[in-house]
Structures are given as structure tokens and as C-alpha cells.
Amino acid sequence: MVDWFYTTSAWITLPLFVGGFVLVSCLIVVALRPVVQRRIADTGEWDRTLGHVIGTFGMFFGILLALVALSVYENYAATRDVTVEEAGKLGALYRATAGLPDDVGEPMRAALDDYTITVIEEDFPDQRLGILPEASLEDVSVVDELLHTVEAETLTEQAELKQVLESYEGFIDARRARIDATALALPALFWMVIWVGAAVNAVLIAFMSVKSLRMHLLMAGLLALFIGLVIYVTADMDRPYAGNVAVDPGAYQRVYEQIIDDR
């Protein structure tokens, strides 16, 4: 069910998610409204008490939603940054290999070429499914082995090798950060609290004493619509590489087209 949510178009998941959220909230109103009307003797006192409860609950629930949404967006933004950083380090490493001897530089550039394609075509699809990518590791191993074969004798060669090694280390660090972000997700406990809060909110709205059923449903529906949209966007961004708002391999495609392809 969770994978279906992240692999299906927003044109399908958004109406189903938000529409279902609104429908359930309205059904709760319809179910509890007769009970509330039978039990309330003094509607004035009831409305004052309920208004205080709804106001207090709404403040805490709103803060929770805001903090969770902010945390999820920060994870998404950080993941986007590390992918752009890795792509930049990859381009810098590719350029730096120009200073190496041809017998090492050429196969290293070929390995980086294969690595870029593998990241685009295999790593990102795996990460979209929440799977830690391993396909590109082989190309990294090839680059690592080639670097250990370089023998720098002159000062110029040593300077060139040092630049390549620094670029390689930065590239490896950025790659590790990009892969680690695959497991980023909000803890299940937070989602439980959010769903419980949404249910409590729907029940409190149903407890309101409103003479017109149509107006009662309209108020409940509009509030549920907004809360449903916030939860939907938060859930969609919870996994940075999946969903409709996801980090894509665009940065690597640009590096491939602008640096590797040009060579």
C-alpha cells in the first residue's frame, strides 16, 4: 500500500487521499451529530467549553503538523543538496583526471562515464523504491584501483595526483551521503500521533452544535480538506527519492551532457 502511494501519479493519489479524508470526516459528523443533539441540554455552555477544547487542541495539533512538515522538507532539501554536491564532485573528478597519464586517465574517465549512467539508470530507480543502491559500487571500485596504480615522480605529477585524490575523497563523501538519504523517513510513531490527532480533530468538529446539517458538513469538510492536503504533501515528501515531489537524477544528467559528453 505504501509503495503504491509513492509510485502512483498525484492525479490519482491526491483525490483519493484528500477525498477519502473529507469523506471520513463528514461521516463522523453524520454519525455523532444525533448523539450530541440528544445529550446537550445547554448549547451555550457546551459551545463555550467545546470552543476552548478545540482552540487548545488546534494549537498543539497545528504546531505538530508544522514541525513535522518542516522536518520532512528539511530532509528533502538536504537530500537534494547532497545529490547536487555529488554531481558537482563527479564533474570535478572527471576534469581532474586530465592531469593523469593516459594509461590511467582514459580508463578512469571511462569508469566515471559508466558510473554516471549507472546512477541515472539504476541507482535512482532503486532509491525510489527505498532500496540501497549497489549497482554503481563496481565503477567506484574500478576508479579506486586505478588510483592506486598511479606513480607520481615529478612535483607536477604529485600536484596533479593530489588534486585528483582530493576530488575523489569529496566525491566519495558526497556519494555516501546520497546513499544514506535513501533510508530517510519520518518515524512511525510520529505518523501514529498525526493520524490520532486528525481523528480527534474530526470528532471534536462533530461535537459542535450546529443547527444546519449542511453547514456542519461544510465546516467539517473544509477543515478536513486543508488538513488532508497538509498530511498528503508531508507524506509525499517523506521519502526524498520517491513520490511526486522527489529528488531526481537531473544533476547527473547535466554533468553527463555538459562535461562527459563534450569530451
Would you mind describing this structure in some detail?
- This protein has a domain at 81-185 and 247-263.
- It has 9 helices and no strands.
- The protein has helices spanning 2-7, 10-39, 43-96, 102-128, 137-147, 155-180, 188-206, 213-238, 250-260.
- α2 (10-39) crosses α7.
- The relative contact order is 0.19.
Task: Tag the structure with descriptive keywords.
mainly alpha; 9 helices; rod-shaped; 80% helix; 263 residues
Strand content: under 5%
Roughly what is the average pLDDT, rounded to an integer?
Answer: 89
| Main sheet attributes: strand count, strand direction, barrel closure | none
What distance lies between the first and last C-alpha atoms, to the nearest angstrom?
45 Å
Shape: rod-shaped
Number of strands: 0
* SSE succession: HHHHHHHHH
Oligomer: single chain
Structural class: mainly alpha
Helical element count? 9
Q: List the uncertain runs.
A: none
Radius of gyration: 27 Å
Helix content, binned percent: over 70%
